[in-house]
Structure of Four helix bundle protein:
Amino acid sequence: MYGLTSQIRQCAVSVPSNIAEGSGRRHGKETIQFLAISRGSLYELETQIYVSFDIGYISEIQLTECINEIEILGKLVNGYIRYLTKE
């Protein structure tokens, strides 16, 4: 349980940290690269949430709530990437 909790925390910190770092870059391509890393961390987090459910650490309600939030965040990150790609 400790290992999974640690991985979830790392992903949860990685997502906004990479968004922030990418936003501080001077070039759009660098920003997009960090956003892609952030998106990857969201996918990793999603997997860890499913594993948490599968082994009984969280309830189905918690699973649904977490996955819904992750999907919303993924759409926001993807939208930001699309916006920067069009510039």
In short: The chain has one domain: 2-86. Residues 1 and 55 are 10 Å apart (CA to CA). The first helix runs from residue 2 to 23. The mean pLDDT is 93.
